[in-house]
Specification:
Blueprint: H1 3-8, E1 14-18, H2 23-34, E2 38-43, H3 46-58, E3 62-67, H4 73-87, E4 92-95, H5 110-136, E5 142-147, H6 160-180, E6 185-192, H7 206-214, H8 228-235, E7 247-250
Parallel strand pairs: 1-2, 1-4, 2-3, 4-5, 5-6, 6-7
Helix pairs in contact: 2-8, 4-5, 5-6
Bound molecules: nicotinamide-adenine-dinucleotide.
Nicotinamide-adenine-dinucleotide binds next to helix 2.
């Protein structure tokens, strides 16, 4: 077996990718499957789920789709039950369902604030509780990758609720990493910079794009496939064995930029 294979192969593992119907996590699901794991793509859209499963199978990987709504604890519990009854275990969990809104701070209403916090933070907590309990009971533990954001590292204009939710996700990952490391469950945050996707379509106005480019040393948006190296490092039991509680930033230098 080559060193690369030994470090990064996910063969015989099961990964649950929540938000795998979306742009970034869809690509992550693809990469995890191509590294050898069976991927359970999770989202609300049957159609997008089926498309991703077909793309994975066309590339020689193995995948299935389960519909779930992360707003509901029951939905996540039945997801776990179905995955465990079919595959026996969960080795990798990606928490990537996310929503955003460009509402100015003074105009944010309670309903919107609660909804964004509940999907971006509450659901990640619920999912970590439900799947973390399963991983803690497994001999080989597991790896949880929560999707954070550079807006969780420092104040980013126009997306306050989103930023607050992501800052809390970073904190949650570190808390769980500390609590679960000894039992072999690693919890990390993958922190993308700017990648055009469905949830940020409304936020990426022309002036916003100019501001982003002015603050990104790489002078471009990221492409979803550029998250795969970091994803496989965090997912892999071998390559990532001593990596827990980190914020893995993939942002073309955005967070390193000042003047
Ligand atoms: N695109 C970026 O630039 C960027 C940057 C930093 C972080 N992120 C994070 O990456 C993750 C993926 O986002 P994306 O940019 O690919 O957006 P996306 O909109 O393409 O994907 C988000 C997915 O989450 C799903 N989702 C939303 N609410 C859900 C619910 N209640 N139950 C189940 N699924 C639900 C959506 O259906 C969609 O498939 C998000 O957590 C996002 O905050 C994205």
């Amino acid at each position: 077996m080559s060193l690369i294979e030994k470090l990064f192969s996910l063969k015989d593992q099961t990964a649950v990718v929540i938000g795998g119907t979306g742009t970034l996590c869809g690509e992550m699901a693809q990469g995890i499957a191509e590294a050898g794991a069976h991927v359970v793509v999770v989202g609300r859209s049957q159609e997008k789920g089926a498309e991703r499963v077909s793309a994975i199978e066309a590339a020689g990987g193995s995948a299935s789709f389960i519909a779930a709504d992360v707003a509901s604890r029951e939905s996540l519990e039945s997801l776990l039950k179905e995955v465990v009854s079919t595959h026996g275990q969960v080795d990798i969990l990606v928490n990537g369902a996310g929503v955003n809104s460009p509402t100015p701070v003074l105009d944010i209403e309670d309903e919107e604030f609660s909804r964004i916090l509940d999907i971006n933070l509450g659901a990640v907590l619920r999912s970590c509780q439900i799947f973390g309990k399963q991983m803690l009971s497994q001999e080989k533990g597991g790896s949880i990758i929560n999707l954070g954001s550079i807006s969780g590292l420092g104040p980013l204009s126009r997306v306050f609720t989103y930023s607050a939710s992501k800052a809390a996700v970073h904190n949650l990952s570190k808390n769980l990493a500390r609590e679960w490391a000894e039992q072999g469950v690693r919890v990390n945050t993958l922190v993308p910079g700017f990648f055009p996707a469905e949830q940020n379509r409304k936020v990426l106005t022309e002036d916003r794009i100019a501001a982003i480019m002015g603050h990104t040393p790489a002078k471009r948006f990221g492409e979803a496939s550029e998250l795969l190296g970091a994803t496989l490092l965090l997912a892999s039991r071998d390559a990532g064995s001593f990596v827990t509680g980190v914020e893995m930033i993939v942002d073309g230098g955005f967070s390193a930029m000042s003047i």
